[in-house]
Amino acid sequence: MRLAEAAGALAEPRFRWYFLARTTTSIGRSMTSVALAFAVLHITDDAGALAQVLAAHMAAMVLFLLLGGVVADRYSRTAVMQVSHTTAFLTQGLAAYLVITGQAQVWHLVVIETINGAVSAFGMPAMMGVVPLVVPPGRLQQANALLSLSRSSIAIVGPALAGALVVGAGPGWALLVDSLTFLIAVPMLVQVRLSGRVRDADEPPPSMVRDLREGWSAFVSHTWVWIVVAAFGVLNAVHTGAVLVLGPVVAKASAGVGEQGWGLALSAEAAGVVLMTIVAMRWRITRPLVAGMVGVSLLAVPMSVLGLAPQTVLLMAAFLVAGAGAEIFGVAWNTALHEHIPDAVLSRVSSYDALGSFVAMPLGALVFGWLASVFEPRSVLLASAVGYAALALATLAAPSVRGLRARPEPDPADAVD
């Protein structure tokens, strides 16, 4: 498939506006992980403080995810995203103000990230449910690849720019950019124009309990879904603690890396995503979870480098490989959900997916913050790398995971309703 043909999803006006909105917010988000990490480390060098801020965001997100999935399946998904984006603009703008003016304390960032986590719990399931409504069935993999290409292309320069801003001006300015991108994206989402769920006249009135049960039934009825989600409950906890908590700590303490080197490493990860996205736009993945789980096992590579030899060039190469592997999984997983899960329950299934995948991340952040105070961080990173790769590959022992196939490509004449 030629790249021009693969980009054909942009011919759909509603997807084009959605694509622009997602691209805009990606500009700010690409800088946030670096900015937030070093905003905390600027206040205190305590890895536990950074763990608390990250854990607060993730705990709030986990707490509200199921409610977010119900809301996204019941109401207009783009309207849900608009409210989520407006709130994120206000809260992240406050964080930027406090950091820039030097008034920020760790507890301020804990509170703000708690609110941001709750907000993202509504926006995430809504985003997951938009793509099948605005592109033809045959364009799902390409649409997901385009969104990833946009996000990762921006992420190549975003973390590096954030690292430069942290060194030159301070982390608050990157947080300010993130805040403004949410505001800019709101009017773009208005153009997508998605209605809420239409119920039959004889259908009983909405019930949150019934909606949650419907979503749960759909979730557990697909064995491959809950097996992969269960694995990611552990994988994401390890990744959060090893890379997001211990990574910046080891980078800052290493003369060969530092803040700017860490930003460059994250940019290299995004470059790996871009390269693999281009491949995904041309290559039809027939066994999505085989490719995806092998790919995600490569996230153990940067953990190994951080543990063995934390140097900027080696770390950039490791994150490049990890980014490529993560992208294989991301495109394959999203397309598998879009192809095999009915639209009526897609946001709820994705909220159960996110809940199971993220539920242990706050604990992972806190546990690894504690481990850094008891053991040498680089030894913890090495052990994490071995366990992470082993668990990712172990999921392929399940027949439903390794046997899942992509649906045959429909007739190109198929159109979006």
Series of H and E elements = HHHHHHHHHHHHHHHHHH
- Which spans of ≥5 residues are poorly predicted at pLDDT below 50? 412-417
Radius of gyration: 20 Å
Q: Into which percentage range does the β-strand content fall?
A: under 5%
Shape: globular
Report the total helices: 18
N- and C-termini, Cα separation: 25 Å
* Share of helix, binned: over 70%
Main sheet overview: none
Strand tally is: 0
Mean pLDDT: 82
* Derived structural class: mainly alpha
Walk me through the structure.
The chain is mostly helical and 417 residues long. Helix content is 79%, strand content 0%. It has 18 helices and no strands. The chain has helices at 3-6, 13-43, 47-74, 77-100, 106-128, 131-134, 140-168, 172-190, 208-220, 223-253, 258-282, 288-297, 300-308, 312-340, 343-358, 361-374, 377-394, 399-402. The longest helix has 31 residues, at 13-43. The protein is globular, with a radius of gyration of 20 Å. The protein starts with a helix and ends in a 15-residue tail after the last helix.
